[in-house]
Write a structure and sequence with these properties.
The complex is a heterodimer of chains A (480) and B (451).
Chain A lengths: L2 H29 L3 H20 L10 H25 L6 H12 L15 H16 L1 H8 L7 H8 L12 H25 L4 H12 L16 H14 L3 H9 L3 H5 L2 H21 L6 H16 L14 H13 L12 H19 L8 E2 L2 E2 L2 H26 L5 H12 L20 H15 L3 H5 L3 H4 L3
Antiparallel strand pairs in A: 1-2
Helix pairs in contact in A: 1-2, 1-3, 1-5, 2-3, 3-4, 3-7, 4-5, 4-19, 5-9, 6-8, 8-9, 8-10, 10-14, 13-14, 13-15, 14-15, 17-18, 17-19, 18-19
Chain B lengths: L1 E5 L3 H12 L3 E6 L2 H10 L3 E4 L5 H6 L7 E4 L4 H15 L2 E5 L3 H5 L1 H8 L3 E3 L1 H14 L3 E7 L4 E7 L9 E2 H8 L4 E7 L2 E3 L6 E2 L4 E6 L1 H11 L8 E5 L3 H12 L3 E6 L2 H10 L4 E4 L5 H6 L7 E4 L4 H14 L3 E5 L6 H6 L4 E3 L1 H21 L2 E7 L4 E7 L20 E8 L2 E3 L12 E6 L13
Parallel strand pairs in B: 1-2, 1-4, 2-3, 4-5, 5-6, 14-15, 14-17, 15-16, 17-18, 18-19
Antiparallel strand pairs in B: 7-8, 8-13, 9-12, 10-11, 10-13, 20-21, 21-24, 22-23, 22-24
Helix pairs in contact in B: 1-15, 7-10, 7-15
Classes of the chains: A mainly alpha (480), B alpha/beta (451).
């Protein structure tokens, strides 16, 4: 293990954290808020530490997959701890574990909060809270790769470890160019949403921060009622952009950069994802039609909620905890499937489900025709045995983490549904669950231990299991 | 530059590594996922799985935006088809590796008809390199440019040489060889010599000329060019065939030891002048019987690298022959170098080097008119090949009337493939390429040579 280069990259990360912290600083100056001092203090410390640390150049440039995994998970832990400091120092979230939970929830784009009242937060703290979603959505290291000319082939290992999906590919030959394109698309769509929201009559500040929250598929809101008290037009805009955030970014690349609209329309994962949202919305709308004066309104709320849960955002317009069981169960299924690979969303990922589904069908076929040779296909290509194997073990590890977290949470005071959906909503980076962690409730009531477990679940879910788990394998740290 | 490399074997990997480190955007294509992933994991390149000769795979690899496609799969036919399709769809430059001697005999026609920019044959390249080394064992280094038409031979002037204490003019009138001494290294200094420059003992001179003229020059100089009079080759593969053919045309006696009877028959049909011995080249008695002790040069070309190294070590222990060892595969270069077994030839590196030279020339020609850039004498001297466009100020004027900066020498003019070593009366025409040697680095265009 080449520790010197990991250390070096972590110091560079601190530098970028300082850069991002300058934004809430600036905002605090504009709004004359005391919280600005907390941001300025953390920023100053980051700069000093980073500048000193940067002087120790890495001893060697050896960088393999395991260095990539370890760097990415350590980066996320570092980000969470440093990102939590302003909340804690400004006393707006007085308990450090709570501040940490809020930050982890922000960077992992979960959107699960411990705050019962988000409206009293100062503007700069609120901004930082929602900005973490935007950074975490596409990834901090992907940003650094896009901006810094990191020499050597090692940036691919970083990108692969940080980006979601069963097999991370490049759009163009160079990793840096790929990262630039991804961030370009990301910034472009965010700007579009900001403009549309302002046009729909929302205030500039709310439009900006809520767009960060939407495109990162985060879910933090600025109002206690989440999105529920905005106009219908605004709600529809949110529905559309949540779906866009959970879409595979390859589609945008094909559509906007490569200009191959035909291929973009043929993208199987994106089509399945959209079909899934459409069908679930229709089913739920039918199920809840009795609660609304007409079907259109029911469909609007159903679609909003399915888009929100399916893209792993976690906004809400209504308390879906009061919906009938079928709707709630369907939402949990949509939550587990999650968004597309290569999106900013979380969950098990549509493409993984598609591959496992075909694998299951093939297994059934093998009973009928024992000698049959058949492989799952995705995007017109046969899935490599290695990819299939890694998805199968992904499922196992995913279930195992869910079970263990669920058991630990059960020690706490809440009921079965609450604990189960809390674990699901955290590991899938969605946010709200059911019961005591439903859309109008929060995670503040959990004990510190439960919160730590949920934080682990969030980061593990965001980094797709292995990078975090590898930290706990003794083999990782051995020289040989 | 966007470059697509089809085939991730020995040469493909070497190319990927070197070209990506030179800052090009590389997309690699291979049918073997594992081989491709291996490269994608280690270098900043994109991989596309599939048959590189397929139109859809090429489109996926971005042939429409590519500047160059290099086809180095194991099959000549696939390589040619790759290039043909890329040329038709993308209109990019194409380089193919073609090793089959049958295609190689009509390579000019194939190249023309398929619109290939370049064809490389690793075996032929290796054989040429070996032949060059066998020709001038006293040469320190041999380099080529103008796509192989012109050679630069570096030679150390020995005591008592006919060149000693002579001006270049005297040498020229005495030897009347169509070559040019383009740079002289004396101790730490490097000179671009004029006509009155006097060559001294122990100078290292670089001689520019076509292969044939250089041999002539060495012969007239009376240097035992020591073009080994006889050569023993162990292993009768393609390299051996190409090498033997060249050596025979140079009047060198060749003995080939090959284990396969069929192959021996073929070789003896193709090379009636060579002595083809059917036997195991690793058999010590056979080697002795065939006169290993008396041989002046020993070339080991079996298919097994380890065997080649052992054979060369064995020959080294018994004779003072010039040794040449062929290494295909193994990557422990520094270990092999430390064995001190004479010249070691790595065909994969040679092929990669050929292609990389072409790529550099392409990069250069995008920004300037430099076709090739070659550094002599530890980067102190540059040999540049310029393409002469129309409305260049040097066209049509005899060289003696051009006001050329000091320390610049026009070494060769390539007029439609015909190489001349220019005199004062020579003129440059549109479309020529001109080789200039200079200690003034940083020339970008032929007009920069003028005052």
């Amino acid at each position: 293990m080449n520790f010197s280069i990991i250390r070096y990259i972590l110091f560079r990360v601190l530098e970028f954290v300082a850069l991002f912290l300058s934004l809430p600083c600036l905002l605090a100056v504009i709004y004359h808020e005391k919280a600005g001092f907390a941001f300025a203090a953390v920023m100053a410390v980051c700069i000093v530490v980073a500048e000193i640390g940067k002087q120790f150049k890495p001893k060697s440039n050896v960088f393999y997959a395991r260095e990539g995994f370890v760097t990415v998970s350590l980066t996320w832990i570092l980000l969470s701890v440093v990102g939590a400091l302003p909340f804690y120092i400004s006393r707006e979230i007085p308990c450090f574990v709570d501040a940490l939970y809020e930050t982890v929830s922000g960077f992992t784009t979960t959107g699960a909060t411990i705050l019962s009242d988000v409206e009293h937060l100062s503007k700069s703290v609120q901004f930082w809270r929602l900005f973490t979603h935007w950074i975490g959505g596409m990834g901090m290291l992907v940003f650094i790769i896009a901006v810094l000319p990191l020499s050597g082939g090692y940036n691919m290992h970083l990108m692969r470890a940080e980006s979601p999906g069963p097999s991370v590919g490049k759009l163009v030959p160079r990793v840096q160019a790929t990262a630039k394109i991804l961030y370009g698309i990301y910034i472009g769509i965010t700007l579009l949403q900001i403009i549309l929201l302002i046009a729909a009559g929302m205030s500039v500040y709310d439009s900006v921060v809520l767009s960060f929250s939407t495109m990162g598929t985060g879910g933090f809101g600025v109002l206690n009622s989440s999105i529920g008290s905005y106009s219908i037009v605004v709600q529809v805009i949110f529905t559309v952009f949540m779906i866009l955030g959970g879409m595979n970014f390859n589609v945008y690349y094909l559509l906007l950069v490569a200009r191959k609209p035909k291929e973009a329309l043929k993208h199987e994962e994106a089509r399945t994802y959209l079909m899934l949202i459409l069908i679930s919305s229709a089913l739920i709308a039918w199920n809840i039609r009795g609660y609304y004066p007409n079907f259109a309104l029911a469909f609007k709320d159903a679609a909003f909620q399915v888009a929100s849960i399916g893209s792993s955002t976690g906004f809400s317009t209504t308390n879906f905890d009061l919906w009938p069981s079928f709707s709630k169960a369907l939402l949990i299924v949509v939550m587990a499937i999650g968004a597309c690979a290569g999106s900013t969303g979380g969950g098990f990922k549509v493409s993984r489900v598609m591959i496992l589904w075909q694998d299951m069908k093939n297994e059934l076929l093998r009973v009928v025709h024992p000698q049959i040779v058949k492989k799952p296909h995705l995007e017109g290509r046969a899935v490599e045995d290695e990819t299939l194997r890694s998805i199968q073990s992904y499922l196992m590890i995913y279930l195992l983490i869910c079970v263990i977290s669920f058991l630990i949470l059960s020690v706490d005071k809440y009921d079965f549904t609450t604990n189960l959906t809390a674990v699901m909503a955290n590991i899938n980076n969605t946010g709200p669950g059911l019961g005591a962690v439903g859309p109008v409730c929060n995670y503040g009531g959990y004990s510190a231990l439960s919160k730590l477990v949920l934080m682990f679940d969030m980061i593990t879910g965001r980094l797709e299991l292995l990078p975090m788990l590898i930290l706990f394998s003794p083999k990782t740290w051995k020289k040989f | 530059m966007h470059i697509i490399i089809v085939g991730c074997g020995n040469v493909g990997s070497t190319l990927t590594q070197q070209l990506s480190s030179e800052g090009h955007n590389i997309t690699i294509v291979d049918v073997d996922n594992r081989r491709m992933q291996n490269l994608v994991n280690n270098y900043d390149v994109m991989g596309v799985l599939g048959n590189g000769a397929s139109f859809s795979v090429q489109s996926e690899a971005g042939v429409n935006n590519a500047h160059l496609l290099i086809a180095v799969t194991g099959s000549d036919e696939v390589n040619l088809l790759c290039c043909l399709i890329a040329k038709k769809t993308g209109g990019c430059h194409t380089i193919a590796r073609v090793r089959n001697p049958i295609y190689n005999m009509e390579i000019g026609y194939i190249k023309e008809e398929l619109g290939l920019s370049m064809v490389v044959n690793p075996e032929l390249a290796a054989a040429q390199e070996m032949a060059r080394l066998l020709k001038f064992p006293s040469a320190i280094a041999i380099g080529t440019f103008t796509k192989g038409r012109v050679e630069v031979v570096k030679y150390r002037v020995e005591a008592g040489s006919i060149l000693c204490d002579q001006t270049l003019q005297q040498i020229n009138s005495k030897l009347k060889a169509d070559i040019l001494i383009c740079s002289v290294e004396r101790g730490d200094q490097v000179f671009i010599p004029g006509g009155n420059f006097i060559i001294r003992e122990r100078d290292e001179i670089s001689i520019v000329g076509t292969q044939q003229k250089t041999v002539e020059f060495f012969k007239k100089m009376g240097v035992a060019v020591a073009a080994a009079k006889n050569v023993m080759i162990v292993g009768g593969g393609e390299i051996a065939f190409y090498l033997a053919k060249q050596l025979i045309s140079m009047g060198i006696r060749v003995k080939i030891i090959e284990i396969d009877k069929e192959r021996c028959m073929t070789l003896s049909e193709l090379l009636p002048e060579a002595a083809v011995i059917n036997g195991d080249g690793t058999d010590r008695d056979l080697l002795m019987q065939e006169g290993l002790i008396q041989t002046e040069a020993f070339v080991s070309l079996t298919n097994v690298d380890e065997e080649n190294i052992m054979l060369s070590l064995f020959a080294k222990s018994l004779t003072k022959a010039k040794l040449i060892t062929n290494v295909h595969r193994i990557t422990y270069d520094e270990i092999i170098d430390s064995l001190d077994i004479g010249s070691v030839i790595y065909p994969k590196y040679l092929t990669a080097e050929y292609i990389i030279k072409y790529v550099r020339a392409m990069v250069n020609s995008l920004g300037s008119n430099i076709e090739t850039l070659y550094r002599l004498n530890d980067n102190k001297v540059e040999a540049l090949e310029f393409y002469v466009k129309k409305d260049s100020p040097v066209i049509g004027i005899p060289l003696q009337d051009l006001k050329i900066k000091p320390d610049i020498l026009i070494c060769a003019i390539n007029h439609k493939g015909h190489i001349t070593i220019p005199g004062g009366q020579s003129i440059i025409s549109i479309g020529d390429t001109v080789i200039v040697v200079t200690t003034n680095t940083g020339l970008n265009d032929i007009r920069d040579i003028l005052k």
